[in-house]
Amino acid sequence: MKIKHLLISSLLAVSLSAPAFADQMPMDELSSPIIELIPAFKEVRADLKLDEKQNKAVDAWMAGAPQKKKELKQKVLEVRAELREALLNRDTRTKRDALKAKLAEATSRVIEIQSLCARMLHKTLTKEQYAKVVAQYRDTTKS
């Protein structure tokens, strides 16, 4: 429970301090995913020469995870809209604090599914295959 509270507090602190860094950071970095390896994986999948077990693991992940991630992102958008309205309407601090915690939790769940995707690829692929995916990811995310 303490770790969850620490994570929520950290995410909230980062999200609330983001405007302070706005002059130093491009806006697309603030809105882009922490990590999103599947597009890079798809680009190099044929070159990876996956075996049957690897193909099954990746296909199973891709059968369910994208929809789950979409739902989690939608939840973030909904909570952000609620918090925006609460701020504009001068709702009570208690309500705003509850919405901030809800936003931190929803954001944390999106980051967690991205993290689980990276972990799935790391566990499923060989070290060399994973390195190719990471290299592709870095090549496509360079500014």
Share of helical residues: over 70%
Q: How widely separated are the two ends?
A: 38 Å
Strand content: under 5%
Note the overall shape. elongated
Low-pLDDT residue intervals, each spanning 5 or more residues = 16-22
Mean pLDDT: 84
Rg from Cα = 18 Å
Count of separate DSSP helical elements: 6
Structural class: mainly alpha
* E-strand count: 0
> What string gives the helices and strands in order?
HHHHHH
Structure report:
With 143 residues, the protein is mainly alpha-helical. It has a domain at 1-12 and 64-138. The protein is 81% helix and 0% strand. The longest helix has 37 residues, at 52-88. Mean pLDDT is 84; it is low at 16-22.
Q: What is the topology?
A:
Elements: H1 2-17, H2 27-31, H3 38-48, H4 52-88, H5 93-124, H6 127-141
Feature tags:
0% strand; mainly alpha; 81% helix; 143 residues
Please sum up the structure shown:
This protein has six helices and no strands. With 143 residues, it is mainly α. The chain has a domain at 1-12 and 64-138.
